[in-house]
User: Fold this.
Amino acid sequence: MILLSLKKGFDEKNFNKIIENLENQIGKNKVSKKISDLLSYSYDYWPISLHWILEKNFHFKPSAIIWPTTKEDVKKVIQICSKEKIPVYPFGGGTGVLGALSPEKKGIIIDLKKIRNIKINSENLLVECGAGVNGHYLESYLNSKGLILRNIPQSLYPSTVGGWVGTKATGQFSTRYGGIEQMVAGLEIVVPPGKILTLKPQPRTSTGPDLRHFFIGSEGTLGIITKIWLKIWPKPEKCIKLAFVSETIKEAIDSVKNIMQTGARPAVVRIYDKIETKRHFYKYEEVYGHVSTVIIIEGNSKIVDAEIKIIKEKFQGKQINEDIVEHWLKTRFNVKEASEFVPMGVVFDTIEVAVGWDKAIYLYENVIKSMKQIKGVIFASAHASHFYPQGICFYFTFAGIPPRGEKAVDFYNKVWKAAMDSTVESGGTISHHHGIGRQKMPWLKDEIGSEGLDLLRKLKKCMDEKDIMNPGNMGV
Amino acid sequence: MPEKFDWLKDEMKDFKTLSKLPIILKFLKGRVKGPDDITKCTLCPNMCRNACPVGIVDGSETTSPSGKSKIGFLLRENVLEKNKENVFPLYMCLSCGCCEKYCPFDFSVSDILRPIKTNAVDKGIIQDELKEVLKNLEKYGYPYGKLKTNEKAESKIKNKKQKILYLSGCSFRENFPGVILKALKLFEKLGHNVEIISEEKCCGIPAYHIGDMKTFKKLAKENTKIINDFNPEIIVTSCPSCTYSYKNLYRESGFEINAPVFHITEFLKDNISDFKMKSGKNMDFTFHDPCKLVHGLKQPNIFSEFLEKILNNDVKKPWRNGENTFCCGYGGSSICRINPKLGDEIAYERLKELADFSNNIITTCPSCKLAFENAKKTIDKEVNIYDIIEFIDLLSDK
Assistant:
């Protein structure tokens, strides 16, 4: 939940000199203080910031932008920024939706998109890539070599691999292939006050606490990820699409629970509630007004055949033809509604949470009800998009118009509070794959307790003594 | 069948008191237009970044596709002062149209930005390197300076199959005049009566890309008259940007070329059916689809289909081809002049990728050839770059 009082920035007295020094160290063409660049890096894709852009309000403006091309460049920047106590914010594709990349204390944005080398080890099924490699570029490149990664977030086209790791992202095919944390085999990170840490890729390692997990999901608060080794797969031999229609969301959820608990792992499973079915599949009368489920199974053909059998046996709904799966595949990256409705004053967001099977229906109903109680909310809906033997991720969407006299940001925060409080009350986790950022920050304590938050803060202080790494983010 | 937003209209029934609802309902019913294109592009999280060579190679938010729109929006809204430095990012566009494929609104960022550029040009806010081009176009009708004539390339062929007007384009004349002679030889071999304009002027597309619509329209008017006075049966160009300009942009600006205009690839596809490779020339090839042929002329597969037809299995399809092509870095008339380093970086990236498939690379655009000829000095592999005309000249048995 954002407070719009601009936080005090760092001491900018000697900033020009520091920038000159940086330019000398890494090259003038890698540094900019141009106003067009500063405004371009003021926000990530935090939905409330779309309103601020239209209002021409740039609450957070960095002081400079740097585009390193090597880890040594990053090291030099961190060394200088540590010495001079200048805040640093790593930037990937800028598609985070929780304001994690808001340079609230000014400082330097380090855009990693120029570090983008790719090296495949097809024997070990590993790919080594620079943090700035574009997600879609990586997947297409691997596909051209007969391989896949299959981390397919909705932001696949604009996002970067470094961003995926930094936010602990996951993608549409996660039910089979896992989240990014399961794909990461090794990491290279530049940590304050300017050291390079390499955690080599191994099939498994029993060498104390897993340091990789300090950085996966750290959202730029502990260091800057410069290189990632990811686990890859051969292209699937067989791919089958299935679709079902159910009368209630409970019926569909119970079906998927039973499937997941047999050990079957469909790549994609998405259950749309009645509103979302109408929204996404309005052309398909068979599902309109009902609950729809989209399933994709892929991999080795013998395993796929067995999984199809299990799914057909366990699913308690009517199987329909695969048209809605094809439709989903064609439209799954469509985010045009934000561009159409935000200028008309509509405030919207998506909120992804996870919960165990036993509380799934309760959480779904509780969160929808809580959001709808806020005056101005036009609709609140959800689909379930990632599944585990233990539980489920719900992806809620709300949209509304602030009542007369209420600011967009205040309305936005009210709906968020309703959604987060009801998630906590229902026993869910406040974040499944978007991270924490600045929007979910107030509820991190509810999630990990004051002891957990205190430990995170101590870790941050220990690793980033001068608090230069994305200060203020996550509340650590 | 329900309409797209019926579900939302249902959800909105209980909210009639909210102030902004009437306008939203009108929008849902299609009675009012939504936000304008630049606003929509500004609010997009760059869903076409993956396809944009500048977005990928430059790696900056400012020059990313929706980043440029955001700069255009901020200039239009007077948040950014209109000056050369702030307008600069708008010119970091190759006008390749690669973004369009991924845009849910089918936008081309180049089209969205043009009115903002035109406004800047009208106010005299022009990058110095581009001023020179516009001055040359205005004065000589040729972007590089004094007009280079086609005199040495006069055709002697008369009264054959068709009266073809061949327009070589400025880039071939300036950088690879030999290709023009080979083109004429090819037309002759194919039995056509070809004519050329010795004082062929630029089609005007550089002015169009820069946003100088006055200069573009002046050239369009002059060229339309000259070309129509020739009264050809068909027009063939070697440069896909010229074809696009004569065929699409002139019409949009109210100038009509009477004869049909074809790019050389379109012409060859219909006129060569029995290509035979010279003996001893068993080479493999890959190819580069020029963006203006793919996205401008909407012919994503014509080049590969033609090559496959005449080369059978000797053509190796690159990873990014057809509508997924990656611009050579020299498109759009601006980047190669005001940020040549970036243009060369993009060319290097594309050439390196193509060289993984074959050492022999065929393209069908003079700008692509120029980009790769420059980039080949920087890659660690010996490669040969052929325009389609050179390729046929080199390898045809006829």
Summary: Chain A touches chain B through 60 residues (CB under 8 Å). Chain A has four domains: 15-113, 118-234, 238-331, 336-434. Residues 152 and 172 of chain A are 5 Å apart (CA to CA).
